[in-house]
Amino acid sequence: MAKKKKEVVKKAILTPEEANASIIGSGLVAEQPISDTLKTNYMPYAMSVIISRAIPEIDGFKPAHRKLLYTMYTMGLLKGNKTKSANIVGQTMKLNPHGDAAIYDTLVRLTRANEALLHPYVDSKGNFGKAYSRDMQASASRYTEAKLDSFAEELFKDINKDTVTFVDNYDATLKEPTLFPVTFPSILVNANVGIAVGMASNICPFNLKEVCDTTIGLIRNPDHDICETLLAPDFPGGGNLIYKRQDIENIYNTGRGSFKVRATYKYDKSNNCIEIVEIPPTTSCEQVIEKVIDLVKLKKITEINDIRDETDINGMSIAIDLKRGIDPDKFMAKLYKLTSLEDSFSCNFNVLIGTVPKVMGVGEILEEWIAFRMECVRARVFYDFTKTSEKLHLLKGLSKILLDIDKAVRIVRETEAESDVVPNLMIGFGIDEIQANYVAEIKLRHLNREYILNRLKDVEDLEKEKDRLEGILNSKAKIKGIIVKELEGVAEKYGKDRLTKIVAPGDEQEYDVEEEVPDYPVHIFFTKEGYFKKVTPQSLRMSNEQKLKENDEITQAYETSNRKELLFFTDKHQVYKTRISTFDDTKISNLGDYVPSKLDMDEGERAIYMALVDDYKGNMLFFFENGKVAKVDMKAYYTKNNRKKLISAYCEKMPLTTMMYAPEECEFVMESSNGRMLLVNSSVLTQKTTKNTQGVAVMTQKKGHRLIGVSVYKEGMFNKPYRYRSKALPAAGSIKQADTEQLSLI
Question: Any idea what the Cα angle at residue 210 is, between residues 204 and 214, rounded to 5°?
Fold first, then answer.
């Protein structure tokens, strides 16, 4: 029995064809390559998220937004009264196969009350929460009401004139548009954020009037300077945008980049209170308050008595009561530095063009929109041209009948069968079937002189209109003229002043962290086991001998000041950056701070060297056992964003003998295990900007030998220093004369 079972298990190893054919025994699993699984299961999901969910299209909307707004349009909410949000959500589910909560969240963001958009598409009644508040959530959909805002009319103009393509909904019972024929570049007017699979989109909003003016400028002149008319992004929450022309131009050209936005505040002198009324779009009022409270607990902020959230029906407000004698501007500069009241907004203008996601600059986006809008206008004009031609064709047939009404009446009366009326009229007047059907349906009351004259006059008007429409279809310039006229109308009707003010980087006071750090002379010590001590001169004079762990020793000692910066290099080829001020003053009779614990180093990582830096001048020198030396510019370790940890601090491909920081060029002595020594000036080494460079060969090593020590050369160290210098590198060095030379190596 056991033997038979074993044979069955062997048969479970099937070919992919057998697995796909489901020829699998009960309880057995067929193996499938992970690449096949990703292709068949994950890739369709990823494409669906990118194309049908997260990335906006050229009309400025994601599918969820478009389905919701079109549902409201078909419900008559553009002109009618408000209806319950629950009703809108329920109707939208006919187009959007998602839960009601997801649809309602989409509706909330589009409303005027939520204040998430510069130009809301939905007029609302009730509590829809606030975009600047994390905790202020919208009421349930059964309590709120909504309708389309008048501004949304620009989304649906001529949508029933074949301007855009309609497709079936998910169950093929209704039709929905694939795009909206928007009359302005909504893709840039209202913010859009989406996270897909492997990509994302983050489009900041711009002022409507500026966008329209820029689009008009590009239509009239393809070389138009965008920065002249599109000044900078404009957020519904206001704030101050720190304007750097180069950063803005980079965003306009590439679609990627970032800029900083600061909160705005008012100072009430009588109450010694700061009121923050506008915050960056990337944060919330609760987040700001929590951060300030944390800083107070850490004693990094000591200037305030209280902070309160006073947001009400009139808008956002964070009140901060200051202590006496505190400069409000200087204090706010400090908050900008320490909290999200000044934050960066990262742009990623990723837009679906057709079904292909593409990151584009502002100019390229507007060019795509202009091309899209030209097709919409052309389709609308062609629709009107077709309808005009059809109507003109009918009236031309009618005009022939009206010239001899008695003949038409006689033909109808003398025709025995009703089905023969149309053929007889066609024969009698030389008209086609469509015209004859139209004539046959004319009411008896219309067979009078006034009706006849009006119809003949309509023929002349329709011929003129047909010629006008045909002229537009044959002229790109006229189509562009229509778009320009529509853009001017939108800008005049809905344009508003900027909410986000543009400020230069130097217009507001900057906060320097150094101002808060007291500066005084200190002595610092670093030991072989990784302990660090900061001792004041007074304490050093009063204390006894150094206290160290057993077998530990001091490897570095400096006399410096409290504000200097430290770089701790580790045995895991990383460097940790900190300041002397972060360590507490201690006594030499204490062990001091254990650096790996103080700086949260990785498990098992040890600090092996300490570099004391001030302005990142000079070089780091790394000496490897194979005789190579890497000379790395200290600027390679400088970072603007105050990162505390840098990986790949030095080369990890070769065993390290030692390292040293050289603020200036110097001479150093290298000693090999074969007894040879080499005296080298660091100026002859090539400086590298890559931290983990392998360096250059300096001291050649014979097989089985290695570099064992390095020391900075000092006058008098050798009786005959020229013996140890070499004209060309790499060099083997000279044998040390033990009876006449003395050398202290590290």
Answer: 100
Distance (Å, whole) CA 470 – CA 467? 5
> Does some domain include residue 316?
yes
Quick count: other Cβ atoms within 10 Å of Cβ 496? 11
Q: Are 115 and 73 in contact (CB under 8 A)?
A: no
| Number of separate domains in the chain | 6
CB 408 within 8 A of CB 424: no
**Is 580 in contact with 589 (CB distance < 8 Å)?**
no
Q: What pLDDT is recorded for position 510?
A: 59
Q: Give the CATH number, domain containing residue 315.
A: 3.30.1360.40
Which of 42, 143, 520, 638 is catalytic? The answer is 143
Burial class (CB in 10 A: 0-12, 13-18, 19+), 337: middle
Closest CA to 706 of 743, 654, 661, 742: 654
How many whole angstroms separate alpha carbon 490 and alpha carbon 189?
12
The closest alpha carbon to 636, from 688, 573, 567, 689, belongs to 689
My answer on whether 482 and 377 are in the same domain is: yes
| 272 torsion bin: left (phi>0), alpha (psi -120 to 50), beta (else) | left
Same structural domain for residues 602 and 622? no
CATH code where residue 670 lies: 2.120.10.90
List, in order, residues 6 or more apart from 652 with CB less than 8 Å away: 573, 692
Q: What is the pLDDT of residue 511?
A: 54
CATH number at residue 387: 1.10.268.10
> Using CA atoms, how far apart are residues 351 and 353, in angstroms rounded to an integer?
6
Look at residues 154, 181, 208 and tell me which one is the last residue of a structural domain: 181
Identity of the amino acid at 241 = L
Same domain, 728 and 676: yes
Helices (H), 599-651: none
Positions of the chain with pLDDT lower than 50, given as ranges: 1-14, 16, 19-25, 739-746
* In a shared domain, residues 25 and 89: no
Residue 313 covered by a domain: yes
Let me know if 724 is a catalytic residue.
no
For residue 71, being part of any structural domain is answered with yes
Q: 16: helix, coil or strand?
A: helix
DSSP secondary structure, 307-334, as one string: EEE--BTTB--EEEEEPTT--HHHHHHH
| Per-residue confidence (pLDDT) for residue 72, from 0 to 100 | 97
Residue 701's closest CA among 661, 673, 664, 665? 673
Contact 568, 575 (CB under 8 A): yes
Residue 595: phi and psi, rounded to 5, are -60, -45
Residue 156 burial (C-beta neighbours within 10 Å; 0-12, 13-18, 19+): buried
Contact (Cβ atoms closer than 8 angstroms) between residue 78 and residue 152: yes
Q: Same domain for 161 and 177?
A: yes
Q: 195 and 178 in contact (C-beta within 8 Å)?
A: no
Q: What would you measure as the largest C-alpha separation in the chain, in angstroms?
A: 144
- Determine the structural domain holding residue 23 and report its residue range: 2-32
DSSP symbol at 731: B
Structure tokens, 306: 């209280």
CB 397, CB 431: distance < 8 Å: yes
Question: Could you give the CA distance from residue 199 to residue 395 in angstroms, rounded to a whole number?
Answer: 57
Same domain, yes or no, for 718 and 627?
yes
Res 453: pLDDT: 73
Rounded to the nearest 5 percent, the helix, strand and coil shares of the chain are 35, 20, 40
CB 263 within 8 A of CB 242: no
* Residues 619, 746 share a domain: yes
Which three-class secondary structure state does DSSP give residue 605?
coil
Q: Are residues 410 and 483 in the same domain?
A: yes
d(CA 660, CA 679): 16
Amino acid making up residue 529: E
Query: What distance, in Å, lies between the first and last C-alpha atoms of the chain?
Result: 75
Choosing from 127, 150, 181, the residue where a domain stops is 181
Domain-embedded: residue 37:
no
> Do residues 422 and 437 make contact, with C-beta atoms less than 8 angstroms apart?
yes
Show the tokens assigned to 688. 């590298």
Say if CB 88 and CB 107 are below 8 A apart.
yes
